[in-house]
Amino acid sequence: QVQLVESGGGLVQAGGSLRLSCTASGRTFSSYAVGWFRATPGKEREFAAAISWSGGSRSYADSVKGRFTISRVNPKNTVYLQMNSLEPEDTAVYYCAATNRAGVRIRPTEYDYWGQGTQVTVSS
Q1: DSSP character for 32?
Q2: Max Cα distance, the chain (Å)
C-alpha cells in the first residue's frame, strides 16, 4: 500500500504561483510513477502532469504546458507540482496519484493509489 498526502493548495490571484507537494508513505515510493489530476464539480477528473519513477520522463496537459512543472525528490518521498501564471480556469481540487506501471501515465484508470486532494482557487 502507498498512502499519499497532498499539501500546498490555497487561494491565489491570477498570475500568481503555488507549489503543491505529494508526500508518500508505505512502500518504496521511488518505484512508482506519479500523476497530478484536477477536478471541478460536474466534470471528470482531468490529467495535469505526470512523471516517471526516475523523473526522467514527464508529460503535461496542453492546458498547463509551459506554466506547470512536475518534479520529484525520491529520498524525500515527495513529488512537486510548481504552478506559475495561474489562471481562474486552474481552480480545482488537485489530486496526486501513484502507479507501479512503467513510464508516464495520463489516464486516471491507470493509477492505483490516490490522495485526498488539495483545493486550489485562483481569483481574477
Answers
A1: S
A2: 41
On whether the CB atoms of residues 76 and 11 are closer than 8 A, the answer is: no
> In which band, very low, low, confident or very high, does the pLDDT at 1 lie, cut at 50, 70 and 90?
confident
Tell me the torsion sign for CA atoms 89, 107, 112, 34: negative
For range 94-113, the mean pLDDT = 95
Q: Give the DSSP letter of residue 42.
A: T
pLDDT, tens only, 56-87: 999 999 999 999 999 999 999 999 999 999 99
Rounded to whole angstroms, how far apart are CA atoms 64 and 85? 10
- Reference 94, options 6, 27, 26, 11; nearest CA is 6
Question: In the prediction, which pLDDT does 100 show?
Answer: 92
Sign of CA dihedral 49, 14, 116, 71: positive
Mean pLDDT of 20-40: 91
**Cβ neighbours, 10 Å, residue 98:** 26
- Of the candidates 112, 84, 85, the residue with the CA atom closest to the CA atom of residue 96: 112
In the structure grid, which three cell numbers stand for residue 53, read together?
519513477
